[in-house]
Amino acid sequence: MSHKEYKIEEHKLTLQDTLENDDYGLIVSKDGELKGIWIPESVSDKDNFPEEIAELCIQTFGLDPNAEDESRHGHTLH
Which of 28, 33, 34, 36 is most buried by its number of CB atoms within 10 A? Predict the structure, then answer.
């Protein structure tokens, strides 16, 4: 077990513990596949992602979260 893994286990942090009220979370498989996007509860317009988040998803995963549902190719947005 690495030092980093030990510190996380010792403090037993959850994903929500590590996020601020307006942070997004990307759920990525061990193979680097985007599995979902966690949207903060504080966001009123859950259909439109900030440009920075959208650009990250486009460049890294080839997915535009602001596109129409058909172009999301079955990815889940939470």
Answer: 34
Element containing residue 27 per DSSP (H, E): strand 25-28
pLDDT of residue 51 exceeding 60, the answer is yes
Structure tokens at 50: 């900030």
What distance in Å separates the CA atoms of residue 77 and residue 47, rounded to the nearest whole number?
9
- C-alpha torsion 65→67→68→70, nearest 10: -70
Bridge partners, residue 36, by sequence: 27, 76
CA–CA separation, 32 vs 60, rounded Å?
A: 9
pTM score: 0.67
Tokens coding 47:
């259909």
Distance of CA 72 to the CA centre of its chain: 14
